[in-house]
Amino acid sequence: MNTNLGKRLIVAGVGVPLCVLVTYAGGYVFVAGLGAVAAIGYRELATMIRASGPPVFVASGAVAAFLFPAVVFMGRLEGAAIYAAVLLLTFSALAIATVDLADKPIRSAACTTFGVMYIGGLLGFAIPLREGWIPLAPMDGITAGRIPGTLLFFLPVTITWLADTAAYVGGRALGKRPLAPRVSPNKTIAGAVCALLAGLVVAILYPRLLLPDVWTLDLVRTLGFGLAVAGLAIVGDLVESALKRECGAKDSSSLLPGHGGLLDRLDSVLWALPAAFLFLALAG
């Protein structure tokens, strides 16, 4: 077996069951898990940004990212909006007080706030999916809703994973024209089309097989859901590619053997989660 493939399988064999267990537990366990992922992801992003110039705040930003899912859980989206405003004010004041003008304190504050909101804020959209804060069939609290809540959270995640696989396979087999050559030369239009088609298939089959008592969207809205999640997952992948290219990094870190960094595994999911929540909240 290829050594790199073996490492990837080992990481997946440990990471996927752990993710399922934490999601199934729900409540504060799920919040803590999301917070840990947010803190690690932010630290990877901040390290890349610091290497390219702006002196972003690593430790305080990681703490802020860790707390973001908890703020969403306890204060809902209104609390998250207030928290985002507090972060902007806090990091601006901190930068003015501690960063020399020659090191561009406003850029430091902007990059720090962006990183916290991009990682912690977008991951926070997992909370309403897992806890059932959407207008589908009601889930009866954390305990009774564990299985449907877990399955609903993994719907956009599954769309993302399978769309990414379809993009890779389809791109290698059919791809000739690049999708975004300046950002990611290896991604192709054919791969993106395959990803969208995979998103449609998963969006139809997954709820029908696993969420028959919860999913209330008709076929047209279900297809729209699949396109929205898969489409924004592609955008998320491109955004992280642009971030790494701008920072001169190949991977966000070497944390996960065979995979790169945690942020490399989250790039598409960060966009898929808010896409799923917003679509269900507006069209559900």
Structural description of this entry:
The structure is a single chain. This protein has 284 residues and is mostly helical. 76% of the residues lie in helices and 3% in strands. It has 11 helices and 2 strands. It has helices spanning 3-25, 27-51, 59-98, 105-123, 126-131, 141-144, 146-174, 189-210, 219-247, 262-266, 269-283; strands spanning 178-180, 184-188. The protein has a two-stranded antiparallel sheet with strand order 1-2. It starts with a helix and ends with a helix. The model has no long low-confidence stretch (mean pLDDT 89).
Spell out the key features of this protein.
mainly alpha; 284 residues; single chain; two-stranded antiparallel ribbon; 76% helix; globular; 3% strand
Tell me the layout of helices and strands.
Layout: H1 3-25, H2 27-51, H3 59-98, H4 105-123, H5 126-131, H6 141-144, H7 146-174, E1 178-180, E2 184-188, H8 189-210, H9 219-247, H10 262-266, H11 269-283
Antiparallel strand pairs: 1-2
Helix pairs in contact: 1-2, 1-7, 2-3, 2-4, 3-4, 4-11, 7-8, 7-9, 7-11, 8-9, 9-11
Intertermini distance: 45 Å
Helix percent reads over 70%
| Major sheet: arrangement of strands | 1-2
| SSE arrangement, N to C | HHHHHHHEEHHHH
Number of helices: 11
Query: Roughly how many Å is the radius of gyration?
Result: 19 Å
**Uncertain spans, ≥5 residues at pLDDT below 50?**
none
Beta content comes to: under 5%
Which geometry do the CA atoms define?
globular
pLDDT averaged over residues: 89
What multimeric state do the chains show?
A: single chain
Profile the largest sheet. 2 strands, antiparallel
Structural class of the secondary elements?
Answer: mainly alpha
What is the number of strand segments? 2
